[in-house]
Structure formats: structure tokens, C-alpha cells
Amino acid sequence: MSFLSGKAYYRFSQIFGVLLVPATLLVLFGIRVEDKVSSPGIVESVDQLIVRSAIKETVAKKVYKENGDHVLKGEIVVEFEDVHGYRYSAEKTSVNLQALKDTYERLKPLQVAGSVTEAKIREMEFEIRALELEIKDLREKADRLLVRSPLDGKIINVFIKEYEMADVGRELFSVSALDDKYIRCMIQERHYSYIRPGMRVIIKSELYNYLLYDVYHGRVVRIGSFGEQYQDEITYRVDIALDPKAAAALKVGSSSMCEIVTDEIPLFHLLFLKRGSR
């Protein structure tokens, strides 16, 4: 009886073995896994501006905002020292202008009597106009000493510190609006050929939970054509559009891990065929 049981078991094992191989292959080829390119990304706004200095050869007196601070349109972010004396010159010229106007008002009636020539009056009028334009220019330059935010939003980067020198065109800070967001990633050159517009992106963020990330979704919308040198490698910019849930939840300036789904491959290929590391 035990012999028959052993023989039946052996026969069962043969049949099971014959069926197991194709079943296993069917599973390995039937199950498809996502092949991904991963890269950290930063949430940015479509309305992002870099504010530059409009004053030559000056010094930062005070920096009122830091990276990540919220700011209102017109709020002062950087204040420069008035090393050129714009405010003092404007006040001094205003005093001279008032004195000239007083003299003009006193002499103009004398033109009728012939005591003052018309040429003299016209010369004074010209001088008054010139001083008014000079004061306007000085006050505009003095206003530029207070660098304000051009929009409501969030400070992304402050590029200048207090007591640092600045000249015309020096980058002072970047500010981003709080709506119309997207994610900017920098992809390594070896991954560049795998990325295509429209590819699905899985976005993992620890913005609200440092122990367990939240998952959002997006799509690749733009791929840079020119590489940028970063340390010892070339990287390419990839912009990712956010779905409504991600756009509502993610904050400008926050970081996330972006997994761009480049392909879906059989599990067999992943386990047994050599593929380049991504």
C-alpha cells in the first residue's frame, strides 16, 4: 500500500512539475512592473521672478526676508545704504528750488514795469523746470534703495546678505506666486533618452508627514534641450505638471521625489535580464 502511495506521489510530482514551469513563466511574463527614473524635484510657480538691483555700487543695509518667507506685493525685502546721497541731494535741491521760486515770484511782476527782462524770467523758468526734473530723478533713485516684492507670494531664494556690495543687475532675490504650480526636476544625462512628454509621474512628498510620504500624480510637460553642468555630471531640466489634488496640496518651495514611469516591463525581464541602473 505504501508502494502505491509512493508511486502515486511520484506521478503527481511529475505532473505538478510539468505544469509548474509554464505556470511560473506565465506569471513572470504576465505580471508587468513599472520601470522608473527617479529624481528629486522642487515645487515652483509659473509666475516666478528674479529681482535685480537697479542701483550702482552700493551696499545692502538690511535684508528683511529669508528663504521660504511669505511676502506681499510692495513689501520691502532689501534696503540699500544711500552711499550716493540721493536723499540728501533731493532735500538740498528742494530747498534751492523753493528759494528760486520765491525769487521768481518776486521778480516776475517787475517784468511789466521793465525792471526785469523777459530773457531773465525765461531763464529762471528753465532753471525751475530743470531743478524739478533733478529732484524727481533723485527721489526715484532714493526709492530704488528700498527693493520691494513685485507680487504676493513666497521668497524662494535670497541671493544677497547684509553689508554685501551690489551693482546694477545684481540678483537680489527670487519670488514666486502661490498658484499655477509645477515641479522642476534635474535628470541625469544617462536617463535623458528615456524621458518623453506625457509620461506619468508618481510624486512622493513628506510635506505633511515625515514618517510616511503622501503620493500624488502628474505628467511630464517639458524637457530641456540643453544640459547644465552640476558637479561632475550633466543634467537636463524636466518640468512636471500637477494634477488638481497635487496642485492643491503641494506648496511652492517644497521638495518631493518624482518617479517618472518610462515603461512597463515583464517581471521576468526585471529578474533575469540585465538592465541599466536608473
Q: Give, in spatial order, the strands making up the sheet with the most strands.
A: 1-10-14-12-11-15
Number of domains: 3
Task: Give the fraction of residues assigned to helices.
Answer: 25-40%
- The CATH architecture of the largest domain can be named as Beta Barrel
The number of helical runs is: 5
Mean pLDDT: 83
The CATH homologous superfamily of the largest domain is named Efflux pump adaptor protein, beta barrel domain
Topology order in helix (H) and strand (E) letters: HEEEEEHHEEEEEEEEEHEH
Account of the 3D structure:
- The protein has helices at 2-30, 86-113, 118-143, 244-249, 267-272, and strands at 32-45, 48-52, 58-63, 70-71, 76-80, 146-148, 153-158, 165-166, 171-176, 181-188, 200-205, 214-223, 228-230, 233-242, 255-266.
- It is an alpha+beta fold and 278 residues long.
- The strands form three sheets. The chain has a six-stranded antiparallel β-barrel with strand order 1-10-14-12-11-15. A four-stranded antiparallel beta sheet has the order 2-9-7-4, with no helix packed on it. A four-stranded antiparallel beta sheet has the order 6-5-3-8, with no helix packed on it.
- A hairpin with a 2-residue loop joins strand 13 and strand 14.
- Helix 2 packs antiparallel against helix 3 (118-143).
- It is rod-shaped and about 140 Å long.
